[in-house]
């Protein structure tokens, strides 16, 4: 019985923490980080402030957890794409498409993006670090594409990885300003032909 009780407590604790993260995502999507209060997050989750403090020591801890969860959800898209698509070019296209759909529909991911573009000093590192990681992800996929010949062998991997991330972040920023990311999937689809043109091996033959 004590072991069963302990398992129930752990499960309840995980559910409470997840509810707080979802609530924090809602609050951070609604108001700037500087204006958000822990009471707002607790009220949104329907949980006491005491329970909130049990899981998170302060507002910065909550913000960091939201940013971590945002990246975990984005990494989940990468994992699913990697498992289902082997060729580099198609993997890259599907990754951008999947991330665009996630950003357009997931409020917690949107909250992480808001935090990243208006970082407070206590979450600045957590907000900025992921960008470099996604550049590395794009570079790895491009290398795989060169190996499987879905990507042109003369593509400058590092520069192209940076450029592609800039394209995605630019589309993400414009969609966020225009319609709270609803148009991001369409913007990414519109960019797909140009991405294929830049990366496809067929362009080598066309240039020749």
Automatic annotation (TrEMBL):
It comes from the Bacteria. Residues 14-74 form the HTH tetR-type domain. Keywords: DNA-binding, Transcription, Transcription regulation. PROSITE patterns: HTH_TETR_2 (PS50977). Pfam families: TetR_C_45, TetR_N. InterPro entries: CprB_TetR_C, Homeodomain-like_sf, HTH-type_TetR-like_transc_reg, HTH_TetR, Tet_transcr_reg_TetR-rel_C_sf. The keyword Hydrolase does not apply. One of its GO terms (molecular function) is transcription cis-regulatory region binding. Residues 37-56 bind DNA. The keyword Transcription regulation applies. This is HTH tetR-type domain-containing protein.
């Amino acid at each position: 019985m004590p072991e069963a009780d302990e398992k129930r407590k752990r499960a309840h604790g995980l559910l409470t923490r997840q509810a707080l993260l979802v609530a924090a995502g809602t609050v951070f999507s609604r108001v700037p980080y500087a204006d958000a209060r822990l009471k707002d997050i607790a009220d949104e989750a329907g949980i006491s402030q005491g329970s909130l403090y049990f899981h998170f020591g302060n507002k910065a801890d909550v913000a960091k957890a939201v940013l971590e969860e945002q990246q975990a959800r984005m990494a989940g898209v990468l994992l699913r794409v990697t498992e289902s698509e082997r060729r580099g070019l198609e993997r890259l296209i599907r990754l951008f498409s999947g991330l665009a759909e996630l950003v357009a529909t997931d409020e917690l991911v949107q909250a992480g993006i808001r935090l990243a573009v208006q970082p407070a000093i206590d979450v600045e590192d957590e907000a900025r670090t992921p960008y470099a990681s996604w550049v590395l992800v794009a570079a790895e996929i491009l290398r795989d594409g060169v190996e499987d010949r879905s990507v042109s062998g003369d593509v400058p991997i590092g520069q192209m990885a940076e450029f592609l991330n800039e394209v995605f972040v630019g589309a993400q920023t414009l969609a966020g300003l225009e319609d709270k990311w609803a148009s991001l999937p369409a913007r990414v689809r519109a960019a797909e032909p140009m991405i294929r043109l830049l990366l496809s091996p067929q362009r080598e033959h066309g240039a020749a």
